Amino acid sequence: MKPSVLPHAQPQARPLSGAAEPLYVLKFGSSVLRTIEDLPRVAGELYRLRRAGRRIVAVVSALAGETDRLFAEAEAVTGPVSCRSIPDLVSLGEERTAALLRLACDRIGLPAEICRPEELGLETSGDACDSQPTSLDPFHLEHKLAASGLVIVPGFVGMGEDGQRSLLGRGGSDFSAVFLAGELGADRVRLYKDVDGVFESDPARTPDARRFAEVSWADALEVARPLIQAGSVEYAAARSLPIEIEAIGSTRPTCVGPITSEPLPQKPEPRLRIGLAGYGVVGQALAARLKDDPRFEIASILVRQPQRTRAVPPPCSLTNDVGTFLDAGFDIFVDALSCDSTGASLCRTLLSRGIHVASASKRVVSSHLPLLAGAAASGGARLLYSAAVGGSAPILETVSRAAAQGRIEEVVCVVNGTVNFILDRLSRGAGADEAIALARAAGFAEEDCAADLSGADAAAKLRIIAHHAFDISPQALDVTTQSLDEEAIARIEASGERWVQVAHLRRLDGRIEAGVGLRPLSELPELGAPAEEWNRAVVTLADGSVYRCVGRGAGGPATAEAIAADLDEISRGRAGIAQDRTRLAS
Ligand SMILES: NC(=O)c1ccc[n+]([C@@H]2O[C@H](COP(=O)([O-])OP(=O)(O)OC[C@H]3O[C@@H](n4cnc5c(N)ncnc54)[C@H](O)[C@@H]3O)[C@@H](O)[C@H]2O)c1
Ligand SMILES: N[C@@H](CCO)C(=O)O
After folding, report:
1. In CATH, what class is 395-554?
2. Which among 9, 77, 191, 312 is most buried, taking Cβ atoms within 10 Å?
3. 272-389+561-585 adopts what CATH topology?
4. From the CA of 452, how far away is ligand 2's center (Å)?
5. Segment 102-149, tens digit of pLDDT
6. Which residues contact 130 (CB under 8 A, 6 or more apart)?
7. Per residue, what are the HEC states of 429-497?
């Protein structure tokens, strides 16, 4: 059956200005954003893709049931009288989700902007509550995208010919996303659903339904009508625009595009088992983050004191015995320990046995990287450690991306959340002891806070950054440090200025100069204004091009998100994960 194609206006697709990074338009509807409990997984998916260097327009629907509730509320006021202004009320559902999602992004240190209906430039025609998009003026959207790389757009709403809000008809957020993708010339448009693609029939009712890897626009209109809004499929067909349909965390979207392939039976993927060492600030935040992720199961947790009460109930029993910890059997080891010797020895042993490792410990990674990389190579395992540097600020990814483009000349960064937090508070009149106590209470500081204050923590991170920037061994780098001691604090307080602990790497006379020092922020305009525990990095190449990134440098949720993205990466390469868990015992 051929789709009936609506007569949409078809302006030429325009790439966004300065479009270096691929642009993805993603849509999160009420099947994946049912309640506020679902926000962390959606924010995590956005974080994962931003970290991988994608620019994102994220279109959201109202939370489940919200649109019906708002229509009913409107009707309670209007009765049978037809009112043009119903979209003003009903579109609040999508605006609320956009604001909630931005909060969830902020919590994990992912900058995002919201493009409100009046700024979006999406014009519509037809009935106010069942309109068709006709054109897009992306001026504000482009501006916001250039500023943060992630723009959240309330779906389902546009502006009618009379300049008032209009609605795109039920399921219209799909249409918002596909239309924006088409008009912006996006590299991908993906609609996230609670099912992993398009099936012959609803897998909730027919569990053995087969799944399409590819389904044509016309066939999608036949088999996937309840899943994808028809208008968006018709628009995509008219523009020859492929649409991806997938569940969060999936690696195999259905492509709704030019062809239909034979559907295949679904094989559920077994969960990946995680051995989590450390159940403090980071370990507990990771357990909370993975609670509803069907891909992972925390199988074993190693701690110092199993009897202590924890704020996040552990998903399995805690042990302080390494043998018992290992006996549970797992595919991935997460190092969230404060004890370096235990962490280093477990990482090395497990990597050599083929167990993948995600580490949050800059001390372990900066001191043992060549050894650990060797163990990973011999065991055929992956070693990831994004969380060890910058918390959720994707500093290592940004540096690696820059290094792939050209010769790095300089890296200037803020990489210690605790010190940045303290200096920020000092500049706002707090006393040093109070600021340090607040940083500790927030879970930013190391077990021994002296490592933060002395610059040793930043120096360890700088060594890892240098490895990614200049391909040198972390241990080979000499780093000068300056301590935030009483004398420095007195000098900073007397200056009345905002100071930063800045870490830098610079090519100088054929060697790499590296240092961690305290400077007034006014001397470092390129750093912007990193507030509280936020970290940032500015990477400059020999040709003058500049790469930047920001994120929360410390704290449970941000650090756990970086680990979750590492776990996601491991899960995506799961073909390489051996299923023989007896390796642990050997
Ligand atoms: N807190 C942060 O903001 C943050 C951010 C990024 C990285 N990190 C790193 O993550 C790791 C954990 O940090 P945290 O803040 O969660 O620390 P934490 O002190 O809150 O927790 C440490 C955990 O390690 C366990 N532990 C310590 N020694 C042990 C031993 N010998 N055997 C078994 N268990 C042991 C403790 O019982 C505790 O569960 C550290 O390497 C830290 O540098 C922390
Ligand atoms: N103590 C560290 C934790 C993140 O590595 C900091 O404050 O930056």
Report:
1. alpha beta
2. 191
3. Rossmann fold (3.40.50)
4. 7
5. 999 999 999 999 999 999 999 999 999 999 999 999 999 999 999 999
6. 167, 168, 169
7. CCCHHHHHHHHHHCCCCCCCCHHHHHCHHHHHHHHHHHHHHHCCCHHHCCCEECCCCHHHHHHHHHHCC
- The per-residue pLDDT for range 241-251, each reduced to its tens digit, is 999 999 999 98
Encode pLDDT of 447-463 as tens digits. Answer: 889 999 999 999 999 99
How far, in Å, from the CA of 511 to the mean position of ligand 1?
34
555 Cβ inside 6 Å of ligand 1 = yes
Q: Where in the chain is the domain with CATH 3.30.360.10?
A: 395-554
Amino acid identity of 322? V
Measured by CA distance, the residue closest to atom 7 of ligand 1 is 360
Question: Could you please report the per-residue DSSP string of 95-110?
Answer: HHHHHHHHHHHHHTT-
Q: 287 with 315: CB under 8 angstroms?
A: yes
CB distance 339 to ligand 1 below 6 Å: yes
Residues carrying CATH 3.40.50.720, the chain = 272-389+561-585
d(CA 209, CA 202): 7
Ligand number nearest to the C-alpha of 442: 1
Q: How far is the CA of 535 from the centre of ligand 2 (A)?
A: 10
Assign a CATH topology to domain 23-205: Carbamate kinase (3.40.1160)
**SS3 at position 302:** strand
